[in-house]
Amino acid sequence: MSALEFPKPSSDKKALEEGAVFSPRFDAHGLLTAVVTDAKDGMLLMVAHMNAEALALTLETGIAHFWSRSRDALWKKGETSGNVQQVVEMLTDCDQDAIWLRVKVLGHDATCHTGRRSCFYRTVGLIDGKGTLAGDGSKALFDAETTYRKPL
Length: 152
Known about the structure:
The protein is mainly beta. The protein has three helices and eight strands. Helices cover 13% and strands 33% of the residues. The longest helix is centred in the middle third of the chain and has 10 residues, at 52-61. It is globular and about 45 Å long.
């Protein structure tokens, strides 16, 4: 558990947008949106959420941590797969309610739980008034079924 605490966001818009104090604006659920890209080539790898503890652990360790809404638990990215995300740079947006992590992925250079490099591997289209999905041709870089197999 982290001891790092974040100051309450300033009500002064100029201070929030131009100041030197990092005071993240967590949403009503206590989360920030986190966009993750590859530091080497800029590829979008994933979008996730961070609570205060995940954000603090990421800052303190240099390894990406998130809050899993589906598991309702803290999540160190790559803890099971070995595809740890080492943070190269962290940026925040103008009103400090989103984070952008530029990372180096260790392990198989894969981020998605399907084994692919990116969680964004399908294109969205429209045919006859219906939304469609088509793969982008990317293949799994590791066997997700073996990696994430639950013990009996």
